[in-house]
Amino acid sequence: MGRGSRNRHGGASKKAGRKQAKKEQLNLESKIRRDFNNESICSAVSNGQEGKCFNFVSQAGPGCYIARKSEMYEDGIGIDDWVFGWEDIDPDDYHGCRVPDIAVDPEERILTLCNIQDVHVVAYITVYKDVPIDDTSSSTSPSSGSENDKPLTPPLSSSGVVRLSDNAGQELMPGRTVNNEGVEQACTTMIVVCPPRTFAHLCSIEIDRSMVDEKNTSSSSSNNNNNNNSTWEQALLELDCLRIDSDVQEWNRHSNPSDFHSQSIKFPFAPNDGPFLCTQGVGGFLTHFFGGNLHAIDFQCPIGTKLLAVGNGVVLEATDKNQLTGIAVTNLFKWNSILIQLDRQKTESNESSEEGDDENDDGPLFVEYVHISTCAVSVGDRVTTGQVIGTSGSVGFSPEPHLHFAAYRSSELTAETVGVHFSPATANPNKLFSPAAGNWYNATGPVNAAARETQMLLSA
User: N or C: which end of the chain has fewer CB within 10 A?
Assistant: First the structure.
């Protein structure tokens, strides 16, 4: 996820200019989708929808399902074909009532995100496929944004007890998650942007009756209660078996989505490695739509791929202590990363001037490598362009092994991202490039299909 993920939605936008930032970000997302359409590199969302373009390669997010209402965009194209529907509500109807962020109707078994606020909210909702039958306190109600690792038991099983389905009855196929203790479990995560005063009815939930019967039998015998449960009580008993984790927050958009730094950088991988598929680019709908993530770039790469310094600079942070991976919402709050403050590039106009005095100096630039496996540098180390600083991994909220690369104008935890351009390692270093999802890249820049096949054969 990256730096802004510590306050996962990035730097909190000031109220002044919030409407303009919202308009700019939605315009940026619409432009990305038009560009994708023009280049015929649209990606389907995880449940097989075609033609939904949002700078994210869906195959890179197994077990993740994205929902955005069509009316949010001028082109009328949303990502909501799989959901049951969006219900406009009047908050006054719920005056004095405690409305939960996440609710499940005991009769209809529909999981709903409830937003009675006057702002857009973003929800990451994880439903676990397997749940322990003897732990009645593990998920009687959804948790919200906990940073504590809960024991994920039992381990991953293909015969899970919970089945999520879309509005056509098709199962939302689960992904996986592993905590820092190495315990693995199957789960499904929904990423929802919900408009103000709206209930998002997302999916139906079915629960294995054999598990419920076993739990019911155990509960009845311990209480010496042989009475039959009513349909309502049976439904509540079934829902008591669910484990749901969620993080629901106001959508903090980037205050200046068009912000790009004038300082170019080198590619973060070795010249002889790759090519690498960009799986999520600027404004990507999986995780790159907050102030702290908007301009980030994801590159699919095997665990252990060497990572290089993109410029000269000083290491400000370096950690590789975590091992958790996968798509559980709790993984949003822990990861491994390296943060480097780059030296300011010298130009003819500022070579003899004091730092920061030249009008062409675009200010400081910080770059971060996230989800890494190992660090080869320590805090305070000076690094040079092309130096190996660590190896890639899949630590944190990471559906598959990849590098999340982001740049900032500040090292503050709430800093917003800034866009950067890569300078290719070729005879024409001025031909800058900015990766987009669905395309392949190496140190020389974009790689076409023929060149990609040749390079992959040579590296095999």
Answer: C
3-state secondary structure (DSSP) of residue 60: helix
Q: Give φ, ψ of 71 to 5 degrees.
A: -65, -5
Per domain, the residue ranges of the chain are 1-59+255-460, 62-250
Residues 6+ apart with CB under 8 A from 84: 110, 167, 201, 202, 203, 204
Cβ neighbors of 249 (< 8 A, separation 6 or more) are 8, 9, 121, 122, 145
Stated as kind and residue range, the H or E segment containing 194 is: strand 184-194
CATH 3.40.50.1820 is right for the domain spanning 1-59+255-460? no
Distance CA 271, CA 443 (A): 5
Name the pTM for this structure.
0.81
CB neighbour burial string for 435-456, b if at least 16 within 10 angstroms, e if fewer: bbbbbbbbbbbbbeeeebeebe
Asked if 328 contacts 178 with a C-beta cutoff of 8 angstroms, the reply is no
- For residue 432, what are the CA distances in angstroms to 371, 372, 424? 26, 26, 7
> Which pLDDT tens digit goes with each residue over 303-346?
999 999 999 999 999 999 999 999 999 999 999 999 999 999 86
pLDDT digits (tens, 9 = 90+) for 273-312: 999 999 999 999 999 999 999 999 999 999 999 999 999 9
For residue 207, CA distances in Å to 113, 155, 444, 448 come to 20, 18, 51, 47
- Alpha-carbon distance 161 to 289, whole Å? 33
Measured between alpha carbons, how far is 172 from 169 in angstroms, rounded to an integer?
Answer: 9
